[in-house]
DNA sequence: CTCTCCCT
């Protein structure tokens, strides 16, 4: 093992000594090195014999399996060894390590597993996070957990974060870590802004620009589009018009041979245009690209905690992603990048891509933390904390799956966490073992975890996929997706200790198993409907009219997308209602519906929101009724109550004081907040309510006043009085604003003769804005400074008023004149 | 008209 790092011709070699020095003193550092610097191969090798390792291993994290494997091989090569000796790798389905291994390159899920089985990762001296700027969910979790381990158990554990583009100041201040900067090996790329485009016309607009670019520039062109649909359309247009040029699509779904064709130089030496998704941003590198055309959009998956569903969205790309796309033109020589947006748009774009943790399904994360004994994620240090809505949804789901109980991990939860799949699927696998259906469950699990092996036209029946998988195992059909599914199924079979089942499938068994994974998606045909189903979670979803399953009475739905209220079912199996018996619950339902005149009370047999049988309920207790009204108010808003001007005025007075005197602790009485916690203040007044009119009769202002202490009510009247007495003795309303803006006093000018100073509230600290009115209540002047008004503007105003109201008195000296009402 | 990418 002879290796002289200094002789390697890569830019990162220049920073090796600095990194060594920093890690000798600190346990955490950040290395900022752009693509092509060689950091992933050189730095682990340079550090593998440091003293502080005390003979322990270095673990390096890679976001992709292929990268993990090739980097390990390159390092072994530099040492003149075979992979698996000093340097090894571990990825799903494949590992190559031995007792001699000192550097292990692993993919991200593997490290979470390692941390899970040994919190202190005893035999690891250093964890390296490569490509950290991608901010994958696993990398964020792994960093939070290894920091925790470092702080609590292993202060000697070194953490090195490597990243190309990143929000470095934020990261280094959070981790209190030094940043070491390296040069990259990148040629300059000239950026050209091509003006506005339109997301609905991307294929056409992009094709037009590509034609222009082909005429103007030389070399191969890489075009970024959001997805397969746009790529196919653009490809069709270009094929019609560009002769002598090879047009290649490139996206994840494409069979490997066609991906390979897109990456390699053209066989006949033709110029090449590659139409790619974001796959070409990081995962695949196409050599020889001189020109990049960037449409400015990308498609990303986003999880919606309220529906527990993920959906794809087409979004504007961020500046760091745009830079990465442009960089693809400068790998071997100077290049050009055409951006389909304006310079103005560029300055408006978000700087960094949204970390996955902010928009992903967090079920696995919350379960992982629970296994560590962490019930609230905010007790860890996060670069971006997981959003509370997603954490709450994940926690609800895990309680429903009995993986958590009162926020703590259960024995079942620990078993679920050990399986390499989503907790829903893991739950299904374990329950299937009890039902004696484990063989079928492993097939379903693999089908659900991987991409759909059939065409969309095949319909929504999961059983067709399982049949296809079983046929492929018998060698009757073969396709790339099915062989991947089989690989996953095989892993599950090994973990559960079951054999292959290639027999016929009972769809009802599939349905039953799917319910273990997706209990809230049990679906019941709506009466007299067109293939529409009510799901247990309350949503309505439809199957295609011609689908084989459209006329089933019960479905176990696995995949569904929601759009504007009506869902679309993508994957389901028929369900035998007899299997549902244990899930049917008797529930008393009391609802308030103002439009229908009040209470509706029923005793129902139901599964979630699906009602199987319903009988009227003749008596129900007060608590249920009050709860029903509160729920209606929370949902429908203030119009159910008499929310009049007086109430608003009272709210605005309190809210103004809240703004002006923050130290006095005035409550937030904004309408939104009040409606949100109506239970706190309104409930005691609801017990007598029977009809909608009764609700309107509640005197809100009085109710709310009682919410303040007597003392506070006094202070309110003193500091923010409802009315103010003017020189004539009239008591005139002061108009307050919810946001604490200066209150307004609208008063006729003749009533305030003799008033020297601008009136004020809040102990004289807030002067009123005067809206001065004519005798006919028309506005004549607005002033915040009465003294200056009398001295200056009054004389102009007087002239006008004298002409319009000659019978009124308009004195020359208003400060001593008698005020009057007439 | 759902179909970006990746991972245990």
TrEMBL record:
Gene Ontology MF annotations: ATP binding; helicase activity; hydrolase activity; nucleic acid binding
Keyword set includes ATP-binding: yes
Domain Helicase ATP-binding: 20-184
Domain of life where this protein originates: Bacteria
Keywords: ATP-binding, Helicase, Hydrolase, Nucleotide-binding
InterPro entries the UniProt entry points to: CON_HrpB (IPR056329), DEAD/DEAH_box_helicase_dom (IPR011545), Helicase-assoc_dom (IPR007502), Helicase_ATP-bd (IPR014001), Helicase_C-like (IPR001650), HrpB (IPR010225), HrpB_DEXH (IPR049614), P-loop_NTPase (IPR027417)
The Helicase C-terminal domain, residue ranges: 209-373
PANTHER family: ATP-DEPENDENT RNA HELICASE HRPB
Protein name, as recorded: ATP-dependent helicase HrpB
